[in-house]
Write a structure and sequence with these properties.
four-stranded antiparallel beta sheet; 2 domains; alpha/beta; 8 helices; Arc Repressor Mutant, subunit A; five-stranded parallel beta sheet; Rossmann fold
Length: about 220
């Protein structure tokens, strides 16, 4: 499970991220609303912990924009704004839960787990689809629905396909893809991305899919289906 934290108080963000990583979640942290929105729109997160008072773009604006894009990630609003009208505004924009500061970390973890249990029981699929491609999440197998051919994909190939399929026909910057596949703190060489794009292209071709990963100079990559 992947969680995005958008929180401009560094100490709070670090405490939450450290605890959630101990719970075996994959966690990304951003401390301004603009970066938070860009990453939320990649649609690779199961849950977003979202502060309201953020620099550049506030939490309500982020929530409104991701719901407009039909992103169904669970959202827990985390903020010092405790007025009833603020909570109602959050729910109106599509928040799933609302926790005010100060809070106990155990309560936040409990709320995260509760939201993800709801998500698992109602919405989780065993695969991702785009065009004639189907990516099995449990077996990490890539399948073509037309040719019925399949091929196993490795860890980084799987993560790359996951973000591309979730954002089919949309342009993703190299930075967005690199951060999601290798992580923000990775010391891997940047040309690793080009290498793995090549590996995935070959596997898509092997199974006979019509999908193509297009490179757009100065912009990034797009999975065309």
């Amino acid at each position: 499970m992947r969680i995005l934290i958008v929180e401009d108080e560094f100490k709070i963000a670090d405490v939450i991220a450290s605890r959630l990583k101990k719970e075996q979640f994959i966690v990304d942290v951003f401390t301004d609303g603009e970066q938070g929105l860009d990453n939320a729109l990649t649609n690779i997160y199961d849950l977003i912990i979202l502060d309201v008072m953020l620099p550049k773009v506030n939490g309500f604006e982020i929530l409104e924009k991701i719901r407009r894009e039909k992103i169904e990630a669970k959202v827990i609003m985390l903020t010092a704004k405790a007025m009833l009208e603020d909570k109602l505004a959050g729910f109106d924009f599509g928040a799933n839960d609302y926790l005010t500061k100060p809070f106990h970390i155990d309560e936040l973890v409990a709320r995260v787990n509760a939201q993800l249990r709801i998500n698992n029981s109602q919405f989780q699929k065993d695969y991702l689809e785009a065009g004639d491609l189907k990516l099995n999440i449990k077996t990490t197998t890539l399948f073509c629905k037309i040719t019925k051919e399949s091929i196993e994909v490795m860890c980084k190939e799987f993560l790359l396909l996951e973000i591309l399929i979730n954002n089919a026909n949309q342009v993703l910057s190299k930075e967005q893809i690199y951060d999601k596949v290798w992580g923000l703190d990775s010391e891997a060489e940047s040309n690793n991305l080009e290498a793995y794009i090549s590996f995935v292209r070959k596997k898509i071709k092997i199974i006979g899919s019509n999908a193509q990963i297009k490179a757009l100079r100065g912009l990034g990559y797009k999975l065309e289906v």
